[in-house]
Design goal:
Layout lengths: L7 H7 L4 H35 L3 H29 L1 H20 L4 H29 L5 H28 L4 H10 L3 H12 L4 H6 L4 H11 L19 H5 L2 H26 L1 H8 L5 H30 L1 H21 L7 H16 L2 H7 L10 H53 L8 H4 L12 H8 L2
Length: 473
């Protein structure tokens, strides 16, 4: 049992991982399972939709990227609302939008309606990014915060694998292609529906409640109850409530610098990542034009299962040991090298085995690197009163990069082939490495309050651990 003579923030930072952390991670993570499944399954559904609806290259690009553009707006709007009215208040709202959007997509009668329903779905998905990341970050301890937030994001890996499994199962069942793609899209409603109740029963973020609303005693009681006694604290007042207007948030030079680093690196990562992942069936088609639908889907499943999922696991287990910023740099570097070798090695894009090995390596170090860290770091570097706003901006700009990459991939691959697409991805990854190195701080092992340069009145000034950490900046 934790000692109850500590402040709430000390108790949160020092609490060992226990059941309540895992419950919170699974509750948040099921949203990311859905995010991954819903965003990436469209690439496989398009294989069936293209001949059935006679889609043009522009329509394929819009269907593949439309939900990503919507996620840009969802992340910005929900991120800001969560700082204004609270995390818990809107945590179930964006999950509800995901349920409605996925179900509606399954019954879309034509291209226009499907595009509209994908936009609703993407709007909810975008809102889930700042909500899930920040809530888990604010529940976590300082030592293992990266692993806990990565555990939430790592559910994306299962969503990546589940998509091809569904596609292969439906194809093997011999169903009509019109039924297959509808079932594919409709299944995305089940995971958020399953955790909707759990999300509504989670308490408000203790840091938000204490530092922004000034309700430290209520926050301490909430955490003692939710953690079943694992987190006990005095609940004494930490500081005067500090709400943050959008003007004051954006008027702070440090916040703007962190937005540049987090949003910029996320934009570059998502350009390379989403453009390639959603377009994996098309990449396989370029590499092996005579492969059947089943063979192409099976290759996608192998790539995701062998390369992507272990990358997520490695990130969860090792991120806090390596360092969040350092791991992001390593991942971007390997991505740039892998894409570059594919692009500049003669014959590489026509030789299946070497190509798949390098493509798989890029996948592994995308997950064991910037795909996880770009989610984690924005949940650490902004002050509590603007944390979901900052994360929402970073996630929204990231999804804008995903939109650009997904929309442009068919045109780039048409003009320059697979070699041209890989060459462009290599350059983007190198820019991500440079931006991370020049702008972002190392965040692992430090308290959120020290990282965000927040100061606390009263009892928090007597916390030597935080004072020492802040002074070392």
């Amino acid at each position: 049992m934790a000692q109850n003579n500590r402040s709430l923030l000390q108790a949160l930072d020092e609490a060992p991982i226990s059941f309540f952390h895992m419950r919170a991670a699974v509750t948040a993570g099921m949203g990311f399972f859905t995010d991954a499944y819903d965003l990436f399954i469209i690439g496989m559904a398009l294989v069936y939709l293209k001949p059935e609806w006679h889609l043009t290259a522009g329509q394929i690009g819009l269907l593949g990227s439309g939900s990503l553009l919507a996620a840009f707006f969802g992340a910005l709007i929900f991120g800001r609302l969560a700082d204004l009215i609270g995390r818990k208040t809107i945590y179930g709202l964006e999950a509800t939008l995901m349920v409605i959007g996925a179900l509606a997509c399954a019954f879309a009668p034509d291209f226009t309606w499907l595009l509209a329903f994908r936009f609703i779905l993407g709007f909810g998905i975008g809102g889930d990014y700042p909500m899930s990341a920040v809530l888990m970050s604010e529940y976590s301890n300082a030592k293992q915060r990266g692993s806990l937030v990565s555990l939430v994001f790592g559910m994306q890996g299962l969503g990546l694998v589940f998509g091809p499994v569904v596609a292969l199962t439906l194809e093997a069942a011999g169903l009509d292609h019109d039924i297959i793609w509808r079932i594919m899209l409709g299944l995305g409603a089940l995971p958020p529906l399953a955790v909707l109740y759990l999300r509504r029963t989670m308490p408000e973020s203790p840091r938000y409640k204490a530092l922004v609303r000034g309700q430290s005693e209520a926050a301490a009681r909430d955490m003692a109850r939710y953690s079943e006694g694992q987190i006990q604290s005095t609940g004494a007042s930490l500081q005067q409530p500090r709400k943050m207007t959008l003007r004051s948030f954006l008027g702070d030079r440090r916040n703007l610098l962190m937005i540049l680093g987090t949003a910029g690196s996320w934009f570059l990562l998502d350009y390379a990542f989403y453009g390639n992942v959603i377009s994996t069936p098309q990449i396989i088609g370029l590499l092996a034009p005579h492969a059947s639908l089943v063979q192409g889907t099976a290759w996608a499943l192998v790539i995701f299962a062998v390369a992507a999922v272990p990358g997520y696991l490695a990130s969860i287990l090792l991120m806090d040991r390596i360092g969040h910023r350092r791991l992001q740099m390593i991942g971007f570097a390997v991505m740039a090298i892998s894409f570059g070798v594919i692009a500049f090695t003669p014959g590489m894009t026509h030789d299946a085995l070497p190509f798949l090995l390098l493509y798989g390596a890029s996948f592994f170090f995308t997950e064991f690197g910037p795909n996880c860290t770009t989610f984690v770091i924005p949940a650490e570097v902004f002050p509590t009163g603007g944390r979901t706003t900052g994360h929402g901006i970073a996630a929204g700009i990231g999804k804008l990069g995903a939109f650009v990459g997904t929309f442009l991939f068919p045109f780039i691959s048409h003009a320059g082939g697979l070699k041209g697409a890989m060459m462009f991805a290599a350059g983007v990854s190198f820019l991500g490495l440079l931006l991370t190195q020049l702008v972002l701080p190392e965040t692992s092992g430090r308290s959120l309050e020290a990282l965000s340069a927040e100061t606390h009145e009263g009892r928090m000034e007597d916390d030597p651990r935080l004072v020492r950490t802040s002074a070392s900046r």
